[in-house]
Amino acid sequence: MADDSDKLSGAEEYIGATIDLTENLDPDQEKNLRDALGKLVPHTLNFYDIGARQISLCYDPTRTSQKKLLQLIKHAGGTPGHVESEGSPLLQSD
Description:
Layout: E1 15-21, H1 27-38, E2 45-50, E3 54-59, H2 66-75, E4 80-87
Antiparallel strand pairs: 1-3, 1-4, 2-3
């Protein structure tokens, strides 16, 4: 069986996003969010970090959208507030 990485073109561009939450995630909400992020199509997320009131992640915009990620957060019980996004610092040149 072919590895999913064999299907990548090497031209993937990730978008970095920081999502502030209006309220702290409780342990169940955080678990639900981690489970939901883990079920995304492979290579959708390059990185994610979940804090009590902030979520940072890098996502492939060809595999998902910021809107879908915000819906996923809401479905897990989080309440997104301010969102900042930019190209991934891993892919920016000097």
